[in-house]
Amino acid sequence: MAIVSAFTFIALFLTLPSLLPKQSTGIKVIKELISTKIVFFGLLGTFLSYMGYHVIFTYIRLFFEEKLHFTDEFLTFAMLLYAGLNIAGTIAAGKLFSHAFKRFFRLLPVFMILCVILILVLNNSLFMVLPLFAFAFGFGLIPVAWSLWAIYVIPDKTESAGGLSVAVIQLAVAFAALIGGRVYDWFNLDYILYIALAIEAVLFWVTGKSLSMKIKSVTQENLKASESLS
Prior knowledge:
- With about 230 residues, this protein is mainly α.
- Helix content is about 80%, strand content about 0%.
- Helix 5 runs parallel beside helix 7, helix 6 packs antiparallel against helix 7 and helix 8 runs antiparallel to helix 9.
């Protein structure tokens, strides 16, 4: 991991051009963003998106072992395929969102809800692996979805919004691991799915709010970008 990271740093250092910042950043800008309703709902949506996924993903090995009874040899292949579907979702996101961002952005939590429901319906069946893999594909779209949302809605403050987003994502992953672990200790894996289902249901409402609101202090240029959502 350290060696790969070192090579990545060197490659970026040699290839990335030196660019002057075009956007103002700092605590004042962050406070301004957080106090804006649409940004608040966007950050909440980001939090719920990552939490709804990671509450299951953190314990995905248990699903493969306890529900599907995969052996160690097949478990390795399953995890590799799961990661590959994550990447495939990210690649597919570009094509989907370039055609109709608002529609697919709104349907994304619906897709994740359907995956969780199918996992519950096909519980302890080998067919349960299909919605599990579909869930992995769906998550590949999430980082692209919320990044594009920020570009459309607040194009003049994407750098600060990106920093806030990273902090929210790390918090969501930590909360997902904590809650998922507690639920598994107290109950079983099925209840982790119920938690994920509840999170995705709330996310569906939050996603709608993040698309329906407008920033009050929007410029004409930003307004055109926001209108391109529809």
